[in-house]
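User: For my dataset I need records formatted as: sequence, then C-alpha cells, nothing else. Please produce one.
Assistant:
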Amino acid sequence: MMKKRGNDLLPFIAMVVVQLGYAGSNVVTKLVMDTGMDPFVQTAYRPIFATISIAPFAYVLERKTRPRLTLSVLFQIFLCSIVGVTANQYTFCIGLKYTTPTILCAIDNLIPAFTFVLAVPLGFEKLGLRSAAGQAKLVGTLVCVGGAMLLSLYRGPVVIGQLGFHWKYAESSDKNINSGHTNFLLGPFLLIISSVTYALWLIIQARVNEKYAAPYSSTLLTFFMASFQCMIISFCVVPKASEWALTPIRAISVVYNGTVCSSLALYLCSWCIEKKGPLYVSMFNPLLLVIGAFLSWILLREKLYVGIVVGSILTVVGLYGFLWGQKKEMEQSKNDVEEEDENANIEEN
C-alpha cells in the first residue's frame, strides 16, 4: 500500500513542479521584455542554454543505447527544430510581449485539441463520431477553441483589480500595458499560432521517436539546430550589439528558460509519461492557468477581466471533455485487443 502511494505521489509532485516551472518562465519572460529586452534576442538565447543544459543528459543516459542516425531521421529532427523551437518560440515570445501570461496559460490548453485536429487528416487519429468518446473529443475541441476566441476578442469589466504591491519590475510592466504596449488581438493570435506549431511538433516528434529511440539525443540535436536558426534570424532583425547585453534579470531569464523549462521539464515529463502515460501529463495543463494567473496578479499587477475568466473556464472544460473522450477511446481500444487475444486463445485450444 505504501509503495502504491509513493508511485502515485511522485508523478503528481513532478507534474506540479513542471507547471510551476512553466508558470515562472511565462512571468519572467514577460518581465524582461516589458523592461526592454527584445523578443528576438530572448528567443535567440533560449535554445543555446537549452542545448548546453541537456547535453550532459544525452551523453550520460544514451551514450550506449543511441541508435544510428540516418539522413531521414536527421531531416525530421531538422523539421522539429524549425517548427517546434524556432517558429514556436518566436510566436511565443512576440505574442507574450503583446499580451499577458494568464492569456498565454489559457491558450496553452488548446494544444491537445490542435494536436487532434492536425492528427485526423494525417491518419494518426479518427473522428469516431458514432461513439460517445468521439463526440466528446469533437465537442471538447470546439469548446476549447471557442474559449480561446472569447478570451482573445472580448475583455469586459474587471473582475479582480490590481494588487497593491509595489515592485520596480511590476511597475515597468504596468506602464507598458497602460501605454498601449498590449495588443489584445495580435498577442493571442500569435500565441494560438505558437500552440499550433507545438501541436505539429508533437506529431513530427512522434515519427522521430519511432525511428530514433533516443529522446534526449534527438532533443539535443533539435535545440542545437534551432540555436543557429534563431541566432541568424535574430541578428538580422536586431543587429545592434547593445541589445544583446545580458543584465542580471535578463541572464536569469534565459538561463532559467533554457534549464528549467527545457532540460528539467523534459526529463520530468518523459518520466511521468513512462510511469503514468501521456494522458496523465496532459491533465495538469489547467494547473498552469491557475498558477500563471496568480503569479501575474501578484508580480505583474495584472487585472482579470470577465472575458479572460469565462474564456479560460470554457477552455479548461473543453480540455477535460476532450481528455475524457480520449481516455474512453484508449480503454475501448485496450478492451478490443484483449477480446481479440481471448478469441485467438479459444480458437487455438
